[in-house]
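Continuing the batch. This is chain 6 of the set; chains 1 through 5 are on the previous pages. Same settings as before, nothing changed between runs. Recording input and output for traceability.
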Amino acid sequence: MSHLTPQPPQVPRYRGFNRVGERYGITIGPFGRRVSAAPQVGPLLALVLGSLAVVAAVLARLGGLGLGRDMLVVSVRAAVQLTVVSLLIAAVLRSAGLTAAFIAGMVVIAVVTAGRRITGSLRGSGWWTALPIVAGVAPVLGLLLASALVPARTVSVLPIAGIFIGGAMSATGLTGRRALDELTARRGEYEGGLALGLLPRDAALEVCRSSAALALFPVLDQTRTVGLVTLPGAFVGVLLGGADPVEAGAVQLLVLIGLLAIESVAVLITLELVARGRIDRAGSYRRL
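Output for chain 6:
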């Protein structure tokens, strides 16, 4: 019998998803069945993705949204970026130093993206967006690592750091853009506040605070409906990666509640930076 290929041990049916499949390069699902969360990479996948991108671009163009070209550009860009990351990620995860450098690169890209979204330029005050992003992510990620709730392993830290940085980037970009738009559109109210004796910061906050708070609605809705409307990526990924449902739920709770804290910090700091004039853009309420 020694010539037979080793077979995986029997999987207890009551355990559901488990880690036995890691040794054999597979994922063992409920009742011992092999499952895969990944689509088959090939021409069919490329055809479906291309079709969806074209449909999105055509609908945006027909609807007069002015984003048709952007739909195609970001789709191609996402495909290229994920291909490169997929080729690099195995090497990155082997080294704590490379993982730290990769996370630092993610922060820089998030700052550039949020800064351009707010100011429309890579130069000038857009670099102030580094403050809300780092101030939101660093304490929460540090707390999770210090408490050992997230193991200090590259394979654990990198994906959670990416989710946190992405959430801070979105909240910062939305807050800054909406705050400046509101201040420009309601310049008369801002000047009226100044006439009544308010400081420029206080007058600006009176005008833009309520609209900037809308940046928190996406994470609030996601947290409110988790498990009822959506099964977020962290939950599904951890579940199919070998954890049991309770562990997957715990990871997803860490992510969602962590995002609430991170995005709240990012929104408040961004709002303060806009009110104090640190984040500004050409044609804004201060330059009219």
